[in-house]
Amino acid sequence: MAEQIPLYPVRSAAAAANCKRATYFSAAGPGPGAERSSRYQLEDESAHLDEMPLMMSEEGFENDESDYHKLPRARIMRRKRGLEWFVCGGWKFLCTSCCDWLINICQRKRELKARTVWLGYPEKCEEKHPRNSIKNQKYNVFTFIPGVLYEQFKFFLNLYFLVVSCSQFVPALKIGYLYTYWAPLGFVLAVTIMREAIDEFRRFQRDKEVNSQLYSKLTVRGKVQVKSSDIQVGDLIIVEKNQRIPSDMVFLRTSEKAGSCFIRTDQLDGETDWKLKVAVSCTQRLPALGDLFSINAYVYAQKPQQDIHSFEGTFTREDSDPPIHESLSIENTLWASTVVASGLKWVSCRQHIDGSWFCMHSASLCLLVGAFNPFTFKVGLLDLELNQLTKALFLALVALSVVMVTLQGFSGPWYRSLFRFLLLFSYIIPISLRVNLDMGKAAYGWMIMKDENIPGTVVRTSTIPEELGRLVYLLTDKTGTLTRNEMVFKRLHLGTVSYGTDTMDEIQNQLMNSYSQVQSQGGGNNASSTPPRKAQSSAPKVRKSVSSRVHEAVKAVALCHNVTPVYEARGAAGETEFAEADQDFSDDNRTYQASSPDEVALVQWTESVGLTLVNRDLTSMQLRTPSGQILTYCILQTFPFTSESKRMGVIVRDESTAEITFYMKGADVAMSTVVQYNDWLEEECGNMAREGLRTLVVAKRALTEEQYQDFENRYNQAKLSVHDRTLKVAAVVESLEREMELLCLTGVEDQLQADVRPTLEMLRNAGLKIWMLTGDKLETATCIAKSSHLVSRTQDTHVFRPVTSRGEAHLELNAFRRKHDCALVISGDSLEVCLKYYEREFAELACQCPAVVCCRCAPTQKARIVKLLRQHTGRRTCAVGDGGNDVSMIQAADCGIGIEGKEGRQASLAADFSVPQFRHTGRLLTVHGRSSYKRSAALSQFVMHRGLIISTMQAVFSSVFYFASVPLYQGFLMVGCRLHHDCDLRVESVGDHGGQLPSPLRPEVLEAEAVPAQLLQALLLGPRACHGRFQHLRARFRDAGCAAAAAERGREAGRAREVAGVGLRRQSRRIRAGAGFPCLPFSLFLQV
């Protein structure tokens, strides 16, 4: 792989690169940087000659980022591009630029800036905002006809037909009847307009359905129902469980006392983790819901950004003394297209951060800056190839016309003869080609939707069915596309013993016996869940029993999480009511909410073995033992999971014993350095990973009151720091993560969709390169890639280290290019750096990998990767997704496939094809895509082959009659000839051949190599057909003369021959004068 990438050396010695690395990693000190430094030093001793050269001086990595475009290589590339632009299409670029400039003037976007939104009073907004409506339509009522005509006639093939048809209005150039030219062209346009009108109406109906969703709007007079498209900036909207957020909102109030709720963001970033959102404390403390109109408050929102993981704003209440200012963060905002996951009613203020800058697509999907692109008219590669082939045939047509005029001798108005010959030989590019292709595409779409093996498939763009058979890169989402979003607990390993799904009863029995003994020793509901601390500390350190270890492992799993149980019930008025903490908890109406499906799976497993989470708020949680005992724990600190730490933790205090315990769980890579020495963790993690399970290591550490108070003081000081707050907080937490006791190893399986593995294997065997682009975590994406067999078990995987600068990207790319035949796993942040400085090098390396996994990808990054593959490789790409975050990727790809499911319908509505499940893409691509392409290619070859034969016959005919520019066929006869030939390739008959179309030529695909064969056959068959008909005509004249001589006997026979000779001379004079062809030869030529 490394040998195929061209090098552009700018430095002759490798010592400078080694010096740069030594300088770069010297500041890291002991830690990950030092490990990376040693790694590179070992590799550089033997492979420094193959390193990728830097594109600028190494001293300017961090100091100077502006000299990139001043390098000699950059100047050479600019000069090369300038020469290519001047020679090959500069005029086209200028025309396109002028048109784009005029369009931008007419559709000038407003400048994105911060804004102030008043609470509950939309009329106070200083700026005008667009309607909150989703629009996936290409045209409107006024632009439909002009837009369709422009999309059709911007290609040379259709424009050529239009010019030929318009030329028949000129009397000197008229060679036939008008309807023989305008009827086929009008039929093509009518079919195209009808197809576009149907597709546009379907998109309008789908958009209308989404925009007509009703929401409760809070006004001074009470609640009113409004449509999603009628929501204005500043409105107060009540959103309930499982409702879609219609636009960007600020979370103001909830019926829950804790002032929080969960939302699902899988439509936005692809993550199934539920996100915890906190209401603005100022509005949450108001006594009643109607008091929101009694305060004078506004929200200041930042300028729209592409980062959906951060937000900065301010909530200000001016009617208080002094005014209350409360900062807003990502925890207080809810982006459009997210869904309320909790069953709590809450009120929010639509602050519509995007304003008018996103009105052309959807005002409700505003924070996805650039995630939704303007609807582009997709053209298949077959149509582009036909367009290029048409240009080549047009040049042949012109050359043939010039030859005919030259042989004619340029006598008389030769230029009129030249134009007439151009029209006579126009059958080289038959207009029936467009008619047949459009009818064939409509038939292909109908066959796809009627296929019983892929029920529910919808063809939304009927112009590119052949693209399904010409794909090279398949880019797919993970969440909801490859997986079901269903986690199932599979394995618990304690070091010496392992429990699977068939041995969970043993855990339940041991847990029940353990809590029964504890309750009998302490008595009552206030008994401790563990033996007293004093007894533990004074006893000698001995190996714990299996029952005790199971008890501690299950309790740790039940406490170390961010899951919240929610109880719902229906009251007399039909409204949702919620259980309070002092109520009796029922298992019938309890549901779990969490920021990760893994967390829910673990808590559900602890419930199945007897230890149930019954209540949790911001400060405490309660567990119920198998015997019904309620254990209460006070939550002192919570450390959420981050992609950097790869672990999460919680510090709890047992209220019955006042014991403080620090529980932590995380990935094996992150936990192996903080737990006590063991000899089984690494091996068992590898075993579970080979089974496709997602592993989590659970550990704990007991803390004294003095240790915790010291930690709390240092932790609070770190959180108040202005500079380097994140690093200081992490350093304080790391002080606790030492010599932790390893409790257990858990294995959770992420359920894949049906037949994902065989589908991916079939597509890979078909020659497709598959990339997985997801917004999920790196560990999750890697695990799914292996479990779905996107990355085989025996295949090496290169995890691209996090990079933040050009120097780090350079070093990591050099390390990666030494790897051969390995899959690449890279995060979105590192990908952004690589594309900024080493776009071409990264694309060349990544395209040679058998599989690529990109995690933590924003919607704009997904679209950028698709465009990168299209521009760098020139191959056809296909994007598969199911969420709103996949729409940009689907629209940017040559062919987009949307999956309809519980993730929503946004991707399905914006896609070219929609299927119910991912497994249906296998048959869609390998069967229908291949068949559609082979049929269209064979049909195109047949029609062009026939046109070449007819044009050759026309040339022979004109040559026989003194190079006269007289048509061979006229009127309906030429149309009838087309129809006679076209009926042999009806779509109903080709299905019986299993995609193997009978074709007069080989190969059966449209390639440049087939054109010379077509031309040669036409040159042989055309004269042969003319010669045969001329011989037949001569024989008929001879037979007629003999019959006349025998009948008239002498003088009558001579008179007949004299009349025949005069008739032939008159016919010859009429032909030379440009008159029409006599009836007898015309009827004979019609039989060809």
UniProtKB/TrEMBL annotation:
It is a multi-pass membrane protein. Residues 516-539 have a biased composition (Polar residues). The active site is at 477 (4-aspartylphosphate intermediate). InterPro entries: ATPase_P-typ_cyto_dom_N, ATPase_P-typ_P_site, ATPase_P-typ_TM_dom_sf, ATPase_P-typ_transduc_dom_A_sf, HAD-like_sf, HAD_sf, P-type_ATPase_IV, P-type_ATPase_N. ATP binds at residues 477-479, 599, 641, 665, 694, 774-776, 856, 862, 885-886. One of its GO terms (molecular function) is ATP binding. Mg(2+) binds at residues 477, 479, 882, 886. GO terms for biological process: endocytosis; phospholipid translocation; retrograde vesicle-mediated transport, Golgi to endoplasmic reticulum. GO terms for cellular component: endosome; plasma membrane; trans-Golgi network. Residues 909-975 form the P-type ATPase C-terminal domain. Residues 516-545 are annotated as: Disordered. The keyword Metal-binding applies. It holds the Pfam family PhoLip_ATPase_C. SUPFAM superfamilies: Calcium ATPase, transduction domain A, Calcium ATPase, transmembrane domain M, HAD-like, Metal cation-transporting ATPase, ATP-binding domain N. Its main location: Golgi. Keywords: ATP-binding, Golgi apparatus, Lipid transport, Magnesium, Membrane, Metal-binding, Nucleotide-binding, Translocase, Transmembrane, Transmembrane helix, Transport. The chain crosses the membrane at residues 179-198, 392-411, 417-437. It is found in: Golgi apparatus, trans-Golgi network membrane; Membrane. It is an enzyme of class 7 (translocase). The keyword ATP-binding applies. Its EC number is 7.6.2.1. Residues 125-182 form the P-type ATPase N-terminal domain. NCBIfam families: ATPase-Plipid, ATPase_P-type. Belongs to the cation transport ATPase (P-type) (TC 3.A.3) family. Type IV subfamily. This is Phospholipid-transporting ATPase.
